[in-house]
């Protein structure tokens, strides 16, 4: 039996900032309303040349540097996302290619804002059984691409970004100690994002794209989601902490899905603990869905809120409905890596991209020169017809 320890972490937030005042130029809202009801001041928006996969790659590459692991040592890449650029290839396979993680399996995981915790548990179980030894779990989203920018009830909440952790198997007890994963599909309509085939197809061909096609966007019943969130957050924290054989007093920090400060305050009240025991960065990044917990984890480490031998809880909730929590015994200190070494490590991703390009070219060349000739007899038959 092996234990899955978090040995690396990294996040990536796009440069472009969208403030509440910027949003007030787009929809009928105000900085005061958004901040009072959600705690959000600003969020970040991906640039035109950025995708969920490029954000995920940046976060994963940073996490590998902290873990001091070569990409070829990674056995599994899981990307939790609701905003993949493609259904297939998966975002995880794109990240695998960008990293040059040549010996890794890769898949995407769809559990909305709970996806990162789901992924963490899946990777932990694979490590515990001995099926794999190292894994990268990423939460990555470009929410700005699936928002209805006319709906003030949703477009003010979300932002883009990615966060990742590297897990490593070890016989030393610790790491991810317990998790709880739950779903209630009866509440699916409270928070939804239709898939491509949901679109009606009025006419086929070019016209379809010119007239009929509309972009799928998020719809949400905010009040119902709010009620659901406060209930399941406190319950799943309690259940998972007990599963890990701990009491709430032994937990130093709770890193919740960053959706709304009021949800976190209500959960703290239900648990009869101070809201200060929850880490919050929603004010700067908004709700980044599956990316929110790993981004908050990185910020909490940077803020000096996590120390070796402390217990930390991750808790998420979202569309599905889904919710999930994990208890992690934190047993690493941030390593000190020189800038030079960091830059040297980045160079290998340039090599990975060139190798990927070379592979594509090689496939084309092989295809060009190895097309099997059609047997003459079949050509003759075709002529007769
Ligand atoms: O990852 C999970 C994602 N989802 C969530 O976490 C959502 C959870 N829910 C929430 O965070 C809150 O329900 C919201 C922040 C979305 C909304 O806050 P609320 O306090 O539940 O507001 P409400 O929907 O009850 O609306 C109150 C009023 C309404 O006006 P009337 O009908 O009272 O005149 C809304 O039309 O506020 C209005 N309103 C706004 N006003 C200014 C709704 N959105 C806005 C806005 N700016 N952006």
In short:
Helices cover 38% and strands 22% of the residues. It has 385 residues and is an alpha/beta fold.
Describe the overall structure.
- With 385 residues, the protein is an alpha/beta fold.
- It folds into two domains: 3-330, 3-Layer(aba) Sandwich (Peroxisomal Thiolase, Chain A, domain 1); 339-384.
- 38% of the residues lie in helices and 22% in strands.
- It contains twelve helices and 13 strands.
- It has helices at residues 20-24, 31-38, 52-67, 91-99, 115-128, 206-212, 222-243, 261-271, 282-285, 292-302, 339-369, 376-384, and strands spanning 3-12, 16-19, 42-45, 76-80, 105-109, 134-142, 160-170, 175-183, 191-192, 219-220, 251-256, 310-318, 322-330.
- The strands form four sheets. Strands 1-7-6-4-5 form a five-stranded mixed sheet, with helices on both faces. The chain has a four-stranded mixed sheet with strand order 8-13-12-11, sandwiched between helices.
- Helix 4 (91-99) links the parallel strand 4 and strand 5 (105-109).
- Helix 3 packs across helix 4 (91-99) and helix 7 (222-243) crosses helix 8 (261-271).
- The protein is globular, with a radius of gyration of 23 Å.
- The N and C termini lie far apart (66 Å).
- The model is unreliable at 202-213 (pLDDT under 50).
- The structure holds oxa(dethia)-CoA.
- Oxa(dethia)-CoA (UT7) is lined by residues 29, 33-34, 37-38, 113, 152-153, 156, 220, 222-223, 225-226, 229, 259-260, 287, 318.
């Amino acid at each position: 039996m092996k234990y899955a320890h978090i040995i690396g972490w990294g996040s990536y937030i796009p440069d472009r900032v969208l403030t509440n005042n910027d949003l007030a130029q787009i929809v009928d809202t105000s900085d005061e309303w958004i901040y009072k009801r959600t705690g959000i001041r600003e969020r970040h928006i991906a640039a035109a040349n950025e995708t969920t996969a490029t954000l995920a790659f940046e976060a994963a590459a940073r996490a590998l540097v902290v873990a001091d692991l070569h990409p070829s040592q990674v056995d599994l890449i899981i990307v939790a996302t609701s905003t993949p650029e493609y259904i297939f290839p998966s975002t995880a396979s794109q990240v695998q290619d960008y990293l040059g993680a040549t010996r890794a399996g890769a898949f995407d995981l769809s559990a909305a804002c709970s996806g990162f915790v789901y992924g963490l548990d899946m990777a932990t179980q694979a490590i515990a059984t001995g099926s794999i030894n190292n894994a990268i779990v990423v939460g990555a989203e470009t929410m700005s691409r699936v928002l209805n920018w006319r709906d003030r009830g949703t477009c003010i909440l979300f932002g883009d970004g990615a966060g990742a952790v590297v897990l490593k198997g070890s016989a030393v007890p610790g790491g991810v100690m317990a998790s709880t994963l739950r779903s209630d599909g009866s509440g699916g309509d409270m928070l939804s994002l239709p898939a491509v085939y949901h679109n009606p197809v009025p006419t086929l061909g070019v016209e379809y794209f010119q007239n009929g096609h509309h972009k799928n966007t998020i719809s949400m019943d905010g009040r119902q989601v709010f009620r659901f969130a406060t209930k399941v957050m406190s319950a799943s924290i309690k259940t998972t902490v007990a599963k890990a054989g701990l009491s709430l007093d032994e937990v130093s920090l709770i890193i919740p899905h960053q959706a709304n400060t009021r949800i976190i305050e209500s959960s703290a009240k239900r648990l009869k603990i101070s809201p200060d025991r929850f880490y919050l960065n929603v004010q700067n990044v908004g709700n980044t869905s599956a990316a929110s917990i790993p981004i908050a984890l990185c910020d909490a480490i940077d803020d000096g809120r996590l120390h070796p031998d402390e217990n930390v809880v991750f808790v998420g909730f979202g569309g599905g409905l889904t919710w999930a929590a994990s208890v992690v015994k934190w047993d690493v200190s941030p390593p000190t890596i020189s800038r030079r070494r960091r830059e040297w490590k980045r160079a290998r991703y340039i090599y990975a991209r060139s190798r990927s390009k070379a592979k594509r070219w090689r496939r084309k060349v092989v295809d060009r020169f190895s097309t099997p000739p059609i047997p003459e007899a079949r050509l003759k038959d075709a002529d007769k017809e």
